[in-house]
Task: structure prediction
Amino acid sequence: MDLFSSINLEPERQHMEQLANELERLNHEYYMNDRSLVSDEEFDRMMRELQDLEQRYPELASPLSPTKRVGGEVNKTFRQVVHRFPMLSLGNTYSIEEIEEFESRTRKALDGISFTYTCELKYDGVAIGLTYKHGRLVQAVTRGNGTVGDDITTNAKTIPTIPLHLTGNYPDDFEARGEVVYPFEAFEAMNTQRETEGEEPFANPRNAASGSLKLQDSAECAKRKLLFCMYFMMGPDETVLPDTHFERLEWARQMGFKVQPYIQECKDITEIKSFIDHWDHARWDLPFGIDGIVIKVNQTPLWDRLGLTAKSPRWAIAYKFRAERVSTLLESISYQVGRTGVITPVANLQPVHLGGTTVRRATLVNADFIQKMGICKGDHLLIEKGGEIIPKVVGVDMEQRQAGAMPIQYITHCPECGSPLVRADGEAGHYCPNSDGCHPQIIGRLEHFVSRRAMNIDTLGPERLELLYSAGLVHNIADLYDLKKSQLVGLGTDATIQDKGADNLMAALEESKNVPFERVLFALGIRYVGEVGAKKLARYFTNIEAIMQASEEELSQVEDVGEVTAHAIHEWFTHPEHILIVERLRKAGLQMTLQQSDGDHKLDGLTIVVSGVFVHFSRDEIKADIEHHGGKVSGSISGKTSFLLAGDKMGPEKRKKAEKLDVKIISEQEYLEMIGD
Ligand code: IVH
Result:
């Protein structure tokens, strides 16, 4: 260590620490106690000063500095982590009778022991677990499938209600669990902004919270105004925690967590029911969404006595509120044209409050749906919204039906290009067949092609594609690779694309030539061929010719490729213009063959047990992959097992056995890292 510089920097270190402590204190007062002790300008000034100092002396910057709340770090991928303690789910019900049954079952099982319940809100967001060691946040992980979640620490640090350092007394090592929710006001503001920027709005606050935690740019996550509601505390040493859930949460509050005050100790079913009744109405006055009430046995030593079922504890249950339903006027219907030409009718509704947000639109799916519902002009529609779903039209409010109301006349021509619509046999929807001349289809296909999960050419947003199209330079995806820099410079009314921009675009197109075959196949935009389907097709057929020449029957041999998809793929390749596009893309240098690696010896000598469902592999594929890398697959766990590879929905018995025999459990992500994928 350079002794001189460390001595010389001591005043700076002290100043930075002081600034950090003060910012953390102000942050805590603001978000936890609703107290603003300095002006926003003063706060920002201090934050900037600390940021500048950290930039100047990165060796003095703390990983838990309040500057982390502003974000800035970029998450390339989210590492998958096996939970130290599995994140169980709760048994849930919509029926009060079942809550009564839960209560009497619990009372009987506890056979005369005196105990109480806690009733609290069931926050409608994303469950995460926060690990604290020596009072410092060390890791934040999403629930995932309960066994394996995503490491979202960087983004979690930007949430002001997640303490980075704890105050007062705290256990040395524990996990705080809770829900990240998106408060309604912030959610609506964010969605409005997205819409004005031409981005797809989020369907509901829960999806938005989940999407925010998975943002690559933590600075973007910092802007999202998420809220963490803590509801659970556990640790490797339960003896250091209080004996009631209520006291645990109270303690957590003193450590600096935001624990909502709406928790009540209830002594019997009457008190439980009145808590539920109250919140069934009062929930809409909350600034964030809840989808039910959670009832837990308060005395934690009784939890072990009550035990677990396959995946949820017997000492707790969730009562879920029924989806709220409203009636509102159907003002008009818009018809949207998708990239594959499919027409989607959308109901424009008189704005109505539902489930904490304002609903203005809802899909009417297709012509069949409108007919089955018997929707007439001027009708009021019944709209429902459950916790996780987007507003749904569930029927017509017949009480408000006008006399002589006329059924909706479905359009016969494309609203964008005027072509007569086609309805294929056996299909419920109409589509516009003018794929080469219908504007939203052309642009939609280009947008899909360049999108992140396809070719990932992020320099080409919707506006630029529009520009290239209207300049007559790009009409289809193959045209992109004929672009020349000289054609790009100065394009746009006020020369939107300049020299540097043109260079970047050319470089991004060049870079996209390395995108693997399965993503190129997905990017082609063949109807029903999603990301997973494309991957499976690529693995099965290994190159584009084989897919091109395959019969419908052969295509449907592929896992996850049904008859409809097989037909769509086969049909797509009967068009000479599509063959030409594929040829041009190949000539341009795009990957049209699966890159296969020869078997290696990375797993030599290892015996692996596989359990659960995987994202990147089917069961057979993962077994073949292990063998390909020299490993041995075994059906049962024993002392000889090297590790248990855990996917989604892994059986609890397997986990227990692995833990008992001290067999390491690894996630799919860790496996991929091991084999260097
Ligand atoms: S307690 C073992 N309390 O509901 C019990 N869960 O299926 C641990 N949730 O995704 C859960 N609010 O994240 C508990 N006040 C609350 C909750 C809550 C929401 C979520 C939880 C989980 C689901 C339970």
In short: The chain has a mean pLDDT of 90. Residues 337 and 343 are 5 Å apart (CA to CA).
